[in-house]
Amino acid sequence: MTAHWTEAYYGALYLDSVEDLLTPALSALEADVMAALLPLGPSDRVLDLACGHGRHALPLSGRVGGLCGLDRSGDYLRRAAAAARASGGAQRPRFVRGDLRALPFRGGAFDAVYCWYSSLFVFDDPTNEACLREAGRVVRPAGRLLVHHANPLQLAREPSAEASRTLPDGSRVEERSIFDVPQGVDRSLRRLVRPGGAVLAATAELRYYKPSEWSRLAARAGLRLVLVTSTPDAARAPPREPRPEAPDLIALLEKPA
């Protein structure tokens, strides 16, 4: 695994600044959306790409035949494994350290693959396409993939944003972001100031694809686009396309049989 900006950003800086927001209730709601859209069954083998500390892997593992979470961060994976042990569930997920650009799995090893919240597209466009193609490689024919990220249509309405808040432990989080509308790239600087004065800071550069870009992106990865929706609209039958004001975007893909 070669060095990348994610190593500085997706560590204590990111997790400590959002962990109080990523509640079990939110994780369960998002897991329900994934289980319905993929859809997941009791015998399915499922891969959680960029699983982080396992907040989706845990609620989904009891619904499927086997769930594997992959992440670059050894610290996140240790947290995920500890949470799985503490849950006491009979069907625990397993966790693997690896790189999205070269997944350590055989072709067709999974019935379904998902990547929630922007973690798949942290590179330039050719590498992002390669990551999606690699995710497609490890899913079986007729299997499905789900990719989630922020909605670029909503970000384009207010491309420059600043936010700050105080965490329960007294730390201060400050973030400044600028969304490059033509390029579809959100660049942000996050600072976490500890009560004692220590500072963690790093930048992130995330690519968000518009609904109109997803058909071509899927085709270049050898996949078929089933639908594009958002979390608020996914429960509809059939799911509705994301509105410009929707907070997120979900692309559901299928590997040709």
Task: Please describe the structure with a list of short key phrases separated by commas or semicolons.
alpha/beta; Rossmann fold; 2 domains; single chain; 11 strands; seven-stranded mixed beta sheet; 257 residues; globular; four-stranded antiparallel beta sheet
CATH topology of the largest domain: Rossmann fold
User: How many domain regions?
Assistant: 2
Number of helices: 8
Briefly note the structural class of the backbone.
alpha/beta
Which CATH class of the largest domain?
Alpha Beta
% residues in beta strands: 25-35%
CATH superfamily of the largest domain: Vaccinia Virus protein VP39
Q: List segments where confidence is low: pLDDT < 50 over at least 5 consecutive residues.
A: none
Write down the Rg: 18 Å
Named CATH architecture of the largest domain: 3-Layer(aba) Sandwich
N-to-C series of helices and strands: HHHEHEHEEHEHEEEEHEE
- Determine the N-to-C terminus distance: 32 Å
Give the topology, please.
Layout: H1 6-9, H2 12-18, H3 24-37, E1 45-49, H4 57-61, E2 66-71, H5 74-87, E3 94-97, E4 110-115, H6 125-137, E5 139-150, H7 152-155, E6 160-166, E7 172-180, E8 185-193, E9 199-207, H8 211-220, E10 224-229, E11 248-254
Parallel strand pairs: 1-2, 1-4, 2-3, 4-5
Antiparallel strand pairs: 5-11, 6-7, 7-8, 8-9, 10-11
